[in-house]
Amino acid sequence: MTRKERIKRNWNKYGLVYIFLIPILIHFAVFQLFPILFSFILTFTNWPVIGDPKFIGLKNWLALFKDPLAWKALWNTVVFSIYYIVPTMVIGLGMALMINTGKRGTGFFKGLFFLPVVTSFVVISGIWDWLFKGTESGLINMLLSIFGIEPQLFFSSSSQAMIVLAGLSIFKVCGSTMIYYYAGLQSMPEELYEAARIDGASSWKIFWKITFPLLLPIHFYVAIITTIGSFQIFDSAFLLTSGGPNYATTTIVYYLYQEGFVSLRFGYASVLAYVLFFIIFIISIIQKKFLGKETTYK
């Protein structure tokens, strides 16, 4: 059989697949592969948009090690992740357990818990800004005054601003993690719980010995997406604090935005983007090692 005949035979067999696959590959090449390769080339250039790119070698990469603000932004992102990842998973799991009871009214709470997910982040940010206004007229400060606590600065405090931003992201996202955990809970075989109850196991023991271990694939998935989300945090810092006060909420993505689209240092901004990629990649591998194990119902 000649090469032409093999190609024709292959086309006759898989032609429909190729017809649907080619547009997807073109889309991937134009909007994914090309930007990745182009941004990598930019890391070796100085291109302020106006004018031609100038090749500067490794200067952008070396500048990273001498930039204290970049390291501060990276540390701020790590701190945000610490405040954000575990509480998001815990609250999402707790809400999933609540609506999984099947009791009357759980459908209402399912919609209520998921409402922030479908609400515009700009709207939620405005509400959060009103709640945590750093004056006596702020609602949270009004509640604190009932217990004799002095008004807090919140967004104007270097020690409090990041925690408040993390709280905003938790409020926005925990409804999504609830759905993931709820799907996992719904897929568990009921006979395991019946056997545990017959053996006299308490609800607490059933949770730790059956529910929690069997949710390991969900833990892994939620950990991955929340980690990626935490390292990509930008919108809350942009909308509420502009990276302040004193760069306390300047995250790596916000700093990347400032360098690329404000200072027009696209080469250095591309370096920051690749650093972010490698960090997320390494963390994902570590999470897969400890959480990405297969779970069986046997």
Describe the structure.
By secondary structure, the chain is mostly helical. Strands 1-2 form a two-stranded antiparallel ribbon. It folds into 2 domains: 3-42; 65-291, MetI-like (MetI-like fold), CATH 1.10.3720. The radius of gyration is 25 Å and the shape is flat. Helix 2 crosses helix 13, helix 3 packs antiparallel against helix 4 (106-118) and helix 12 packs antiparallel against helix 13 (266-291). A hairpin with a 7-residue loop joins strand 1 and strand 2 (54-55). The chain has helices at 3-42, 59-65, 68-99, 106-118, 121-131, 139-146, 161-186, 190-198, 203-214, 216-231, 235-241, 252-262, 266-291, and strands spanning 45-46, 54-55. The longest helix has 40 residues, at 3-42.
Please outline what is shown here.
This protein is mainly alpha-helical and 298 residues long. The chain contains 13 helices and 2 strands; from the N terminus they run αββαααααααααααα.
Please write out the topology.
Elements: H1 3-42, E1 45-46, E2 54-55, H2 59-65, H3 68-99, H4 106-118, H5 121-131, H6 139-146, H7 161-186, H8 190-198, H9 203-214, H10 216-231, H11 235-241, H12 252-262, H13 266-291
Antiparallel strand pairs: 1-2
Helix pairs in contact: 1-13, 2-13, 3-4, 3-7, 3-10, 3-12, 4-7, 5-11, 7-11, 10-13, 12-13
Share of residues in helices: over 70%
Radius of gyration: 25 Å
Count the strands?
2
* SSE arrangement, N to C: HEEHHHHHHHHHHHH
Top CATH class of the largest domain: Mainly Alpha
Reported for the largest beta sheet, the result is: 2 strands, antiparallel
Backbone shape: flat
Main β-sheet, spatial strand arrangement: 1-2
Strand fraction band?
Answer: under 5%
Mean pLDDT: 89
- Say what the CATH topology of the largest domain is: MetI-like fold
